[in-house]
């Protein structure tokens, strides 16, 4: 019987195995950011421990950073967290893409961009969206700060091998349906804990035809279904994305490493603990209406009613969610008015996302009741977008064009949605208070967010003529 | 971390599904660089209304639930963000254990690392405790070695926990210290792997 990519990566990384214990797993790449690392570095310092492999550790600052006026940071607590990361990186010899670096950006955007993320690697970061890197055929998962400290000190983690879930998405996506809609559809259909205890392997024709950036969008939100990791077996699309990037071998060495990467892909007869098959043609542009990512509907549908649910717990969750969101049972999605638009986050802030949104926006104007923000995922994405003139398209339409960071995905910086207002957001979580106390988040694709910005409410992107000036 | 064997405490019921770590500790409190002092921010947006006014309706704020050390929750507790600030806040508030029918993976792991016992009981057992907690506050006893939860009125349930984590919690061991004893093995692995990959 064949092996899955998870079986293969796992087997290659077990340092120590002992009856009655999890496996001791080797970590190839440890990404670090300012919010979940200070306590880990303090822990090392208290015990007089060092970072075992600074060369396998890479840091940036993204969660806290301002996306405007970066030279002047008013939030002293946030500033302290940033300077603490700088000091820690200096003291422990860790490379840092700091706020002034042209390579700075959201950790899950710059890892792939810099070629640090590669097939077959084990990758961890103190951030649950580390699953993003799985798009490259890496086993990548989020960890807590205690685990960050453990990896810093030992370059390993005690881990129990997760179960495997094959999620096959067949057929073709309709026009206007994006990778974001695919993952939102999966969450709407299977809920927010179908992946708990599993690593999801995404496959099927739909996945095969996606670009690397689109695959990242899907893997990114694996954690929203409860799975710590989600991945895609590497193929030619993966290799072509990586060719020529910083930190990726060149020339003959590249050809050699591609052979190793090919070998890591799942065998066609690999066994899985669970299999889910999705028909890609059933997927529509999606909009979340509730307070977790599974509370999502097709744009041309309506918000569910209590009668649509079986259990009291589900009915109770619906009532609580709608009360928080200020919405009603049976309300049409297209009738939901929005006051804010956020295009950004580790889910949808890469150059293809920005281009797709720009295409919708080009030559048009943001609705007068709407404040709209574009926050590129990295300074490199920003630079490419500006070279293509995309910043001008956004600014002319009435969008704000910002510097890179997590920004309004979790609003740790000054980019906040006010109490009671609705935001069409390309981010990954619509939890209560996520974008600000009382803020009401709707998760959508970049195209859908752009169209909502122009109209002041959700519109079905399939009915919008895109690219016409 | 000191070891945990058995303890008794007041239980408080929070009957909501899918409580995410953004609720347990909202993002505005993640900027601190310490591990301590997060208890006052626990469930902040539920405990307080605008401008810091206490929400008297919220379960943790009821007078009879003050001093609780065991939290009874519903399915998929701790989903979402990997922030370890969530167990730090629970611990600092005074919680030593969380009982639920299921937990999110990262939160579950983060609890274990901080000496909070995440206890999985069946839906029926948790349902019974949630209903009981809605009526009144009550006392539960948790015995980690026997893997049991009991009240003083006939309720008794067994919970699963891996032997590895049971030993870690009971003895209060430092995981990094244990791993560092395998230092030679890690070095040998690194050498072998780097040769194989020609890097």
From TrEMBL, chain A:
The gene is leuC. Pathway: Amino-acid biosynthesis; L-leucine biosynthesis; L-leucine from 3-methyl-2-oxobutanoate: step 2/4. Its cofactor is [4Fe-4S] cluster. GO terms for molecular function: 3-isopropylmalate dehydratase activity; 4 iron, 4 sulfur cluster binding; aconitate hydratase activity; metal ion binding. Catalyzes the isomerization between 2-isopropylmalate and 3-isopropylmalate, via the formation of 2-isopropylmaleate. Keywords: 4Fe-4S, Amino-acid biosynthesis, Branched-chain amino acid biosynthesis, Iron, Iron-sulfur, Leucine biosynthesis, Lyase, Metal-binding. HAMAP family: LeuC_type1. The lineage of its organism: Bacteria, Bacillati, Bacillota, Bacilli, Bacillales. Residues 7-456 form the Aconitase/3-isopropylmalate dehydratase large subunit alpha/beta/alpha domain. This is 3-isopropylmalate dehydratase large subunit. Belongs to the aconitase/IPM isomerase family. LeuC type 1 subfamily. The keyword Amino-acid biosynthesis applies. One of its GO terms (biological process) is L-leucine biosynthetic process. It comes from Robertmurraya kyonggiensis. Binds 1 [4Fe-4S] cluster per subunit. [4Fe-4S] cluster binds at residues 346, 406, 409. Gene3D superfamilies: Aconitase, domain 3 (3.30.499.10). Heterodimer of LeuC and LeuD. InterPro entries: 3-IsopropMal_deHydase_lsu, Acnase/IPM_dHydase_lsu_aba_1/3, Acoase/IPM_deHydtase_lsu_aba, Aconitase_4Fe-4S_BS, Aconitase_4Fe-4S_dom, IPM_dehydratase_rel_enz, IPMI_cat. It catalyses: citrate = D-threo-isocitrate; (2R,3S)-3-isopropylmalate = (2S)-2-isopropylmalate. It comes from the Bacteria. Its EC number is 4.2.1.33.
TrEMBL record, chain B:
Keywords: Amino-acid biosynthesis, Branched-chain amino acid biosynthesis, Leucine biosynthesis, Lyase. GO terms for biological process: L-leucine biosynthetic process. One of its GO terms (molecular function) is 3-isopropylmalate dehydratase activity. Pathway: Amino-acid biosynthesis; L-leucine biosynthesis; L-leucine from 3-methyl-2-oxobutanoate: step 2/4. Residues 3-123 form the Aconitase A/isopropylmalate dehydratase small subunit swivel domain. Belongs to the LeuD family. LeuD type 1 subfamily. It is an enzyme of class 4 (lyase). This is 3-isopropylmalate dehydratase small subunit. The gene is leuD. It comes from the Bacteria. SUPFAM superfamilies: LeuD/IlvD-like (SSF52016). Heterodimer of LeuC and LeuD. One of its GO terms (cellular component) is 3-isopropylmalate dehydratase complex. The keyword ATP-binding does not apply. It catalyses: (2R,3S)-3-isopropylmalate = (2S)-2-isopropylmalate. Catalyzes the isomerization between 2-isopropylmalate and 3-isopropylmalate, via the formation of 2-isopropylmaleate. InterPro entries: 3-IsopropMal_deHydase_ssu, Aconitase/3IPM_dehydase_swvl, AconitaseA/IPMdHydase_ssu_swvl, IPMI_Swivel, LeuD. Its EC number is 4.2.1.33.
